[in-house]
Automatic annotation (TrEMBL):
Organism of provenance: Thiomicrorhabdus sediminis
Annotated motif Q motif, positions: 7-35
Family: Belongs to the DEAD box helicase family.
Protein name (database record): ATP-dependent RNA helicase DbpA
Ranges for domain Helicase ATP-binding: 38-209
Gene encoding the protein: dbpA
Domain DEAD-box RNA helicase Q, chain residue ranges per copy: 7-35
Length: 215
């Protein structure tokens, strides 16, 4: 007997292999942010989401971008922008877990504070998903190591923290560089004016979700 509760991933339009993977990861129920954001994200809509650290944001955007990835086409199709190297690594780790069931998905991290050269080598080998910090991402774009031409999903993770760290101009550069035809998902714990501005300027009819802290 199967009991499909409201918050089960089984309600989502995901491939059986992914549902099995989630079960194996012990993800039996969606977190509140996943419950609200995933139907929107999987539907391809722009999203602005208020959610804190530890709420399960990565799967909220990760399942959507993984679901539309063309693995046979080795080009960068999704860009996830994070405030720090540590957060970039955490997001990449979680994306790799979520991508476990699907072989050969290449996820490359390019964050600041570490040498450029190994990152250049990784990018040259090809990537489907690039995760990184704003300054370093722009460095690679400027040097011709990274192209956003095939991006269909752009995620700004912890956007308010990126603003606090002085990354506003760098974020705007990335948003301008990416193809117009794309899904933009913006996650932030707070909504200062600059976030409202970025959303108004760069998102198309974004759907907003808010999750109350419940820890
Ligand atoms: P955030 O980015 O919001 O800080 P993460 O996406 O890193 O949060 O997720 C936090 C932790 O919760 C991770 O260890 C992740 O593996 C786990 N997690 C995420 N979603 C679920 C779920 N639906 N069920 C169980 N664990 C989950
Ligand atoms: Mg995170």
């Amino acid at each position: 007997m199967t009991d499909i509760t409201e918050s089960s991933f089984l309600h989502l339009d995901l491939p059986p292999a992914q549902l099995k993977n989630l079960q194996q990861l012990g993800y039996h129920h969606m977190t509140p942010i996943q419950e609200q954001a995933l139907p929107i994200a999987l539907g391809g809509h722009d999203l602005i989401a208020q959610a804190k650290t530890g709420s399960g944001k990565t799967a909220a955007f990760g399942l959507a971008l993984l679901n539309r990835l063309q693995v046979s086409e080795l080009s960068v199709q999704a860009l996830v922008v994070c405030p720090t190297r540590e957060l970039s690594n955490q997001v990449a780790e979680e994306l790799r877990r979520l991508a476990r069931f699907q072989a050969n998905i290449k996820i490359v991290v390019v964050s600041g504070g570490v040498p450029m050269r190994p990152q250049v080598a990784s990018l040259e080998n090809g990537a489907h998903i690039v995760v990184g910090t704003p300054g370093r991402l722009n460095d690679h774009i400027d040097k011709g190591n990274l192209s956003l031409a095939n991006i269909n999903t752009l995620v700004l993770d912890e956007a308010d923290r990126m603003l606090e760290m002085g990354f506003k101009e760098q974020m705007l550069e990335l948003l301008k560089d990416a193809p117009h035809q794309r899904q933009t998902m913006l996650f932030s714990a707070t909504f200062p004016d600059d976030i409202e501005y970025i959303s108004r300027r760069f998102q198309k009819n974004p759907m907003q979700v808010t999750v109350e802290a419940h820890h």
